[in-house]
Design goal:
heterodimer, A: 107 residues, mainly beta, 6-stranded parallel β-barrel, 10 strands, disordered C terminus, B: 228 residues, 11-stranded parallel β-sheet, globular
Chain lengths: 107, 228
């Protein structure tokens, strides 16, 4: 997804997504999700490795690892196996951590 | 040449440690508490300064500066840091609630809880609001009110316009009432102080204004009975 791309709705995708535009709805991928710094996301996100550098509002599930970059702003509950938050990131929400492979439904 | 070079050198050397001493005026060094790897805390901890945990904590932490959970440090409880919270890669934070201004979590760390971030945490600080005490000036030197009864009647009858002024004076005249009985005895006061008496009528103003021409005496006896 480029900077001008817009996704509204639900996307279940076998692969990885790099989001640089606007995204609303739900995004479940088998691969990784990366939200660029200019992106605006209001969606439920689920992926293996999820890297956020932009503005995200919504629940985030990372089956492996969630990374919040230094300019990331995330409002929403997150469920992850591993978590990395860089200094400067803003997080508001409930964090749950642990193995939950069984629960992963997006595959 | 020699002297001039030594002087600046000595000046430089002295100030450095001196500046480091004072608490956080520069924000450079604050009170710092360290819980080592073998240390263990159960309960609540409030610290004005920074906290570094490499041991085990079971309880709630509130820190005005930074919190660092490092090494194999483990914290189980709520954490409030007015500045920043850092959770190291081998460290663990299992919290109910995390309130911090800034947050860093290293990859590998165990972290869970409800996170609230923003500039507000400082608002949680207990700020004791100064309670302005109302100073009630005690009007000691105005004992006239009591002897008034007779004098009032005279005073009211003549100067009608005066009745307006007493309004302002009322608050003063009310309080002194208790103290007056003692000072009221001097009979001399009546004729001389007849003017101040005018102030008392303030309470029965409406009455005084109307009654003045007729009979101002009746309203006053009431206050007397209460006082005595």
């Amino acid at each position: 997804m480029g900077p001008g791309d817009i996704l509204e709705g639900k996307l279940i995708y076998d692969g990885s997504v790099h989001a640089d535009g606007r995204l609303e709805g739900e995004l479940r991928v088998t691969g990784n999700i990366e939200v660029a710094s200019g992106a605006t996301v209001k969606a439920l996100l689920e992926g293996g490795n999820v890297t956020l550098k932009g503005n995200v509002e919504g629940m985030v599930t990372a089956r492996d690892k969630l990374t919040l970059g230094k300019n990331a702003r995330l409002s929403g509950d997150i469920q992850v196996r591993r978590l990395q938050i860089d200094d400067g990131a803003t997080l508001n929400g409930h964090v749950r951590m642990g193995d939950f492979e069984h629960q992963a439904s997006g595959q | 040449m020699t002297l001039s070079t030594r002087r600046p050198a000595s000046r430089v050397a002295t100030p450095v440690p001196a500046d480091a001493g004072p608490n956080g005026s520069n924000g450079s060094r604050r009170n710092s508490v360290v819980l080592g790897p073998n240390d263990r805390l159960r309960g609540e901890l409030y610290i004005e300064g920074d906290l570094r945990v490499t041991g085990t904590v079971e309880g709630n932490l509130e820190v005005t500066g930074d919190v660092e959970i490092a090494g194999s440090g483990k914290v189980k409880g709520d954490v409030t840091a007015y500045d920043r919270l850092t959770v190291g890669s081998d460290a663990s934070l299992i919290a109910g609630e995390v309130r911090v201004a800034r947050l860093t979590v290293d990859d590998g760390a165990t972290f869970s809880g409800k996170v609230s971030m923003g500039k507000q945490p400082a608002a949680a600080k207990p700020t004791p609001p100064p309670e302005p005490e109302v100073m009630a000036p005690r009007p000691e030197p105005e004992p006239q009110p009591i002897p008034a009864p007779v004098a009032d009647a005279v005073a009211l009858a003549e100067p009608e316009p005066v009745a307006i002024e007493p309004v302002v004076i009322e608050p003063l005249s009310v309080k002194p009432v208790a103290a007056k009985p003692v000072q009221a005895k001097p009979v001399q006061a009546k004729p001389v102080q007849a003017k101040p008496v005018e102030a008392k009528p303030a309470q029965p103003k409406p009455i005084a204004a109307k009654a003045a021409p007729v009979k101002p005496i009746p309203p006053k006896p009431q206050p007397k009975g209460k006082r005595r």
